[in-house]
Amino acid sequence: MDGGQCRHSGGETIMILRYLCLSLCLLGGASLRAQVAPPSGAWRQTNVTWKKPPAELELKQRYSEARILYFSPDQRFVLLAGTVIQGPTSEAISEGDGRVVYLGMWKLIGNSFQVKYRMVSRTVAEVGETLPGPVHSESVRIRGRVLQFQKGRFTRDEKLDGELKAILQGETARQSTKP
Questions:
Q1: Burial class for 167, CB neighbours closer than 10 Å (0-12, 13-18, 19+)
Q2: What percentage of the chain has pLDDT greater than the value 70?
Q3: Segments forming the whole domain that contains residue 94
Q4: Considering the entire predicted model, what is its pTM?
C-alpha cells in the first residue's frame, strides 16, 4: 500500500461515515429523551368511575369524583379533589358538590417533579381540622404522556385549565388576606 492511498475503498469510507452519523443521531436522541418538558395546565385522574345522572333529567353528561393536578408556569401547584362533570364538548368542576383544595409549589428534578403542598380549603370542614393543613412533599413521575401521583394516573386535560387557573388565583388571594 502506498503512503498516499487511503486504506479503505470509497464504499467502506461511506459505510463508516453512515455508522458514525447513525451513532451520533442515536446518542443525540437519547439525550433529548432524557430532558423532561416542564408540566403545564390541568391533569385529570384517569382511574375513576364515571356515573350518569338520572335518566329523567335527560342530560347528555356524566360525572365522577376525581383529583385534578394543576401546574402553573410560575411553579405554583394545585391539587383539587372534587366532582368533574363531562359533557359532549365540555368539562367542568361541579360548583354544587364538595371539594378539597391544596396549594403548593412544584419543582422539576430529573424526570420527575417534586411537589410541596398543603390543604387550604374544604367545603365541609372536619371536626378539629385546622387550615391551612400540614405541608406534604411528594414526587410526580412522568411516563410518556401520563403523570403518576400517589396511586393515580393523570392525563392532560386542557378543558379544565381555565377553571383550575381561576381556583389557584382565588385561593391564593384568599390565603394572602388571612391574618
A1: buried
A2: 79
A3: 41-177
A4: 0.76
